[in-house]
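Predict structure. Chain length: 333.
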Amino acid sequence: MIKGLFFTAALLVPGLAYAGNPSANLSVQVVPAGAVVPAGAQAAGYTTLAFHSDFSQPFYTNLSNWLDCAGATSPQWWIAGGNGHSPPPCARISMISDGAVQVMDMSFTAADAADLATVLTTINAIGANRYSKGVDFPNGAYWQVTFRVLPNGLNNNPNGNVIAAWWTWSDTGQTSSTAFQERDFPEIYTTGCCHNDVIIHEWYAPSGQNQLLLAGFGAPEYSIDPTIYHTFAARVTQDGSTNLALCFYIDNVFQNCSDMISAGNTGATAITSSQLNQRNYPALQLGPLNSTPVAATMDLLVKDVQIWTCPGWQGPLNQPGHPCNGSVLTGAP
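Prediction complete.
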């Protein structure tokens, strides 16, 4: 689902990067104890764990340690509504025990209809000083999340509600109104099994530039039960000049890829410099994003978020560059 122009932007301040351990020194602690580089990330040279939220850890028990609306002084996550709307109540974010493991519960109710969605981002994306705190990332990265949804919200809402989404938006592209990509990997919709998509949408792009489609929107969807935990990951690789590829993984198993050149984007529709150098922030989201009614409360239970990238990934917030270029990978691992 195309999000629309998600948020407007402001100026820059460098922010927290490695969220799993707020005191970590990125120049020293590249892979913390217990973290394993996924094979798909390793193949691309993405061996730096730039961001990690392991919600099972005691640090996350108290929301005021990490969530802006709960009073965190150095937030790792900020709450927002959908498509630039005001956020729903902070109470929509809670920590619960699921199978004897602490997880983060994001919810969206019928009472939140005017907010369009419950969204968490790694950057402050709303308000007077938006895009001034937090952390953004290059294109070249391996974006991984582990979550599930509760059956009540999945099965008792009309199709069109997004019950789970893991995606990225570009703060630099939004700020400058230059060509950039929105990457959805995946979006999962209500009404039973297997309504999902993985896609790159193009914004401010050259006329005729094609989207990258891996699943949904007429392409085969992934046969997964979203009510059980799955680990979803997307690997973005690019050469810095002519091509970019998106590959998708479920439970560390390679699924498929697409790339800009194979999608027909050459010549006048080739990937642009601003797309190759855009900075991005991830978002976790659930909610209708439009006037689709919400008949039953939706819950997204998140265990873990990891972003793996290259050693030179970090730059000033909301400034293009540090793209982590390399080989364009279009296959397993």
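Summary: Confidence is low (pLDDT under 50) at residues 7-30.
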